[in-house]
Design goal:
The protein has 6 helices and 3 strands; from the N terminus they run αααββαβαα. The chain has about 180 residues and is mainly α. It folds into 2 domains: about 70 residues; about 100 residues, Alpha-Beta Plaits.
Length: about 180
């Protein structure tokens, strides 16, 4: 009788232990899957408007960040997209008729045509605050209602920060822009 009981009990206990271990493996696999899903490096950034409504979310563990530091991560900014955003937001304000925006690696140059009913200082304030609200804090923002500067800015739109004359040209444009009201500091 004891032999029969042992013959039934031992396989039953072995099955229970195997099922229990299998659940632990499943839990570990599940945890790894969740970590992989939340890892921002596994995210691809599709370029369609459906993703514009998605929220940005990341979650890291201390180990992931520590291991990540060994890799070289470069942060890039889409300057054209920032310039586009700044110009469109400024144009939503009454009194602005045309805006040219150029975003470099450390400056934003914004020239605009305004209507006569918009005060020159108020226009400068709106343009500057708009750019400051969109850009990272280390950017210097220059604004001007001199419509000729719009053409100067446009002449740089295909330039690269690697061009030899680029820095000199930007500096010259900034000097001319500073002759216009810059809004409150």
């Amino acid at each position: 009788m004891i032999k029969k009981l042992l013959m039934v009990t031992i396989p039953l206990l072995a099955a229970i232990v195997l099922v229990g271990c299998n659940d632990t493996d499943n839990a570990a696999d599940e945890r790894e899957q969740i970590i992989d899903e939340l890892n921002p490096e596994n995210e691809s950034t599709p370029n369609n408007s459906e993703t514009d409504d998605k929220l940005g979310y990341v979650r890291y563990s201390k180990e992931q960040v520590t291991n990540d530091d060994e890799k070289n991560h470069n942060v890039t900014i889409d300057r054209t997209r920032l310039a586009n955003m700044i110009a469109r937001i400024i144009l939503r304000n009454d009194g602005f008729e045309e805006v040219a925006a150029l975003v470099t690696d450390e400056e934003a140059l914004i020239a605009y045509a305004k209507g006569d009913d918009l005060d020159q200082n108020k226009a400068a304030e709106i343009a500057k605050k708009t750019a400051i609200s969109v850009l990272p804090g280390y950017f210097d923002v220059y604004v001007s209602d001199n419509e000729m500067i719009m053409q100067d800015i446009q002449s740089l739109h295909n330039s690269s920060t690697r061009d030899d004359e680029y820095d000199n040209t930007v500096d010259q444009i900034i000097e001319r822009m500073q002759e216009s009201p810059q809004g409150r500091e």
